[in-house]
Design a protein that fits this description.
The chain is 54% helix and 12% strand. By secondary structure, the protein is an alpha/beta fold. The chain has a single domain, classed as P-loop containing nucleotide triphosphate hydrolases (Rossmann fold, 3-Layer(aba) Sandwich), CATH 3.40.50. Strands 2-3-1-4-5 form a 5-stranded parallel beta sheet, sandwiched between helices. The longest helix is centred in the middle third of the chain and has 26 residues. The protein is globular. The protein starts with 13 loop residues before the first strand and ends in a 6-residue tail after the last helix. The structure holds ligand Z5A. The site of ligand Z5A has 23 residues, from α1, α4, α6 and α8.
């Protein structure tokens, strides 16, 4: 990965959440942001694809499945285009102001989802270099859950609504993504922490909070 934002004069901390469908990223981000705000820290919650008006337009295009027929390389380029806008207009300015940024998915999702769809590593690495432009998460929480449980949670929440482009691609795809996220966490232990996402939300929130305190606020009591 590219150098830490701390080396580029950025003062806020950047936390990303990754993991498969229904692992509880959105739920855990809500709880973490609440705790950080209670400490009086300035915090920005954002998501990928999205986080800017342009990024949200690309999100609609991608999740509707309209870009699927163009193939995985084109989808990867679109995710990266959304990320360029997100980093330039939202993430970097917030970090420069000293705001903590918490993002629901980031570049690791492209590595896992588009990597497994067949996009080659040199292309993924080149797009990552361009889109991140030196902005690297200080901490990435990878939520790890049996895909059967994640799918059931996501299906319950969806109700009668149709699945989006990346949902419901089958157990094998979900299991491969889980393995890829686990491998990614293992390959970059300075940045990534794998957290067991099984159990009740408050228990998982405590695991997340302990990790954030240990990694990013070592002087504070958990
Ligand atoms: N994608 C990609 O391919 N390449 C990329 O570069 C990027 C993304 C950035 C974005 O979808 C899709 O784009 C994503 C990957 C792809 N597709 N998939 N699959 P999204 O943002 O709409 O969806 P998501 O990221 O997959 O998240 P999700 O399915 O919405 O789940 P979540 O945020 O991890 O979980 P949640 O919303 O917090 O919880 C889901 C439900 O479970 C909800 O009803 C909760 O109340 C419930 N829940 C949460 N925690 C618990 C616990 N502990 N117990 C019981 N129930 C719980």
């Amino acid at each position: 990965m590219v150098p830490s934002p701390r080396g580029r004069g950025l003062r806020g901390r950047f936390i990303t959440f990754e993991g498969g469908e229904g692992t509880g990223k959105t739920t855990q981000i809500r709880s973490l942001v609440h705790r950080l705000l209670e400490l009086g820290l300035p915090v920005l919650r954002t998501r990928e694809p999205g986080g800017t008006s342009g990024g949200e337009m690309i999100r609609s295009l991608l999740l509707s499945g309209a870009a699927k027929d163009f193939g995985p390389d084109t989808e990867a380029v679109l995710f990266s285009a959304a990320r360029i806008d997100h980093v330039d207009r939202t993430i970097r300015p917030a970090l420069s102001r000293g705001t903590w940024v918490v993002s629901d998915r980031f570049a690791d999702s492209t590595r896992v989802y588009q990597g497994l769809a067949g996009v080659e590593m040199p292309l993924l690495s080149a797009m990552e270099r361009i889109s991140l432009d030196g902005v690297r998460p200080d901490l990435t929480i990878v939520l790890d859950l049996d895909p059967e449980i994640g799918r059931a949670r996501a299906a319950r929440r969806r109700g009668d609504a149709a699945a989006d482009r990346f949902e419901g691609e089958g157990f094998d795809a979900d299991a491969a993504r889980r393995r890829a996220f686990r491998a990614l966490a293992k390959s970059d232990p300075d940045r990534c922490v794998l957290i067991d996402a099984n159990g009740a939300s408050p228990e998982i929130a405590d695991r997340v909070w302990r990790t954030v305190v240990e990694r990013l606020c070592p002087a504070r009591e958990v």
